[in-house]
Fold:
Amino acid sequence: MGPRRERLLVMLHDGKHIALLIVSVAALAGVLFFHLSVRNQVIQLGYELNHENIRGRQLVRQRSELELEKAIMKNPEEVGKKAEDRFGMHIPDKEQLVKVDKGKGR
Structure:
């Protein structure tokens, strides 16, 4: 055995050095655990932030579409066209109209 190794073994047999070594290893493990925990939280928050950014862009797009639809719906011709396209509705011919008289007692 070399002199360095012998000195190391003597130091290890001394209780103070062993306690210091144990405390140092425990502190290093604690710092490593804390670092990994914080890093995991940062990664998780990054994923959540990305998800919220995507959701925000979807909401902005949906709002733009709704504003466009609102503008279209203010035009009576467009309302008629949409009613026909979506619901099969159409403006009735004059022959299809029925006149209803209101009762005079009301």
